[in-house]
Structures are given as structure tokens and as C-alpha cells.
Design a protein that fits this description.
142 residues, alpha+beta, Threonyl-tRNA Synthetase, Chain A, domain 2, globular
């Protein structure tokens, strides 16, 4: 049985990669992943429109439907530092797990994930708001 937590967490990785590809958002600025609904904040160059939200939702679902394998590897902090943003790594850590979603995304993460993206099922953006001129909050569920 695939946990809702694993589905939501994997969806967040895909959403963050979509935001990086579409808007240059390096990472989420804040995230809350819940069992029923989640939210993430992203830095964006301009205000997000309804059309942008529809495109984001579509891009996330397109990636989910590709059924990419979700895998991981463990790297030394020194090796990971050369290729990844390690902003959440605890001080003193010697290794970090990198989660790979096919060729689409690779992110340091210790959370629970699905084995294939199709297991996330449908991604739905329930609402969004601009927290300020350059920060969007996206609320979603799977």
C-alpha cells in the first residue's frame, strides 16, 4: 500500500522541478506537506496568472503520467555539494540521500517517496495566492 505521505512528497518534488523549469524558482521557500492538502511557496519573477496555474498543473500531471522510476543514491556531503543545493542538510551530516525522478529531477531528500510517478495519481492545484509581488503560494492535493 502506497502511503498518502509518499504520494504527496513525490508530487512536491515534481511541482518544484516544474516551477524551476517554468519560472526559474530555485527551490520552494516554504513547504507544508499534509495528508489531505499541501502548500509550497516559490519565488517567481512576476505575478502568476490563472493560465500559469493551469500550465503548472498540466506539466506536473504530464510528468506523473510518464511513470518515471523514483530512485535514490547516497552521496558524501562533499560530492553532493558540487551538484546540489544543500540548504536543508543538517550541520555535521556526512552523507545525503539524493532522490531521482527519472531524468526529470534530482533533489537531496530524506523523505518517503513512491517507486514510480504514476503512483502519485492526479495532481490538483486547489488554490494559489501571491504572498507578495514575487512569491506565490500554491495549495495542492493528490
Amino acid at each position: 500500500m502506497i502511503s498518502q505521505k509518499a504520494r504527496m512528497h513525490t508530487a512536491e518534488h515534481i511541482l518544484t522541478a516544474v516551477m524551476r523549469h517554468m519560472f526559474g524558482s530555485v527551490r520552494n521557500l516554504e513547504a507544508h506537506l499534509g495528508e489531505k492538502k499541501s502548500k509550497c511557496d516559490y519565488a517567481v519573477p512576476d505575478a502568476i496568472s490563472d493560465a500559469d496555474i493551469a500550465a503548472i498543473e498540466s506539466a506536473v500531471n504530464d510528468e506523473i503520467l510518464k511513470d518515471d522510476q523514483v530512485s535514490f543514491e547516497v552521496l558524501s556531503i562533499d560530492a553532493a555539494r558540487q551538484a546540489y543545493d544543500l540548504w536543508k542538510v543538517p550541520a555535521g551530516a556526512k552523507t545525503i540521500r539524493i532522490v531521482h525522478i527519472g531524468d526529470f529531477d534530482s533533489t537531496p531528500c530524506s523523505g518517503e517517496h513512491v517507486e514510480h510517478t504514476a503512483q502519485v495519481e492526479r495532481f490538483l492545484i486547489s488554490s494559489y495566492s501571491m504572498k507578495d509581488e514575487r512569491t506565490v503560494r500554491i495549495r495542492f492535493s493528490v
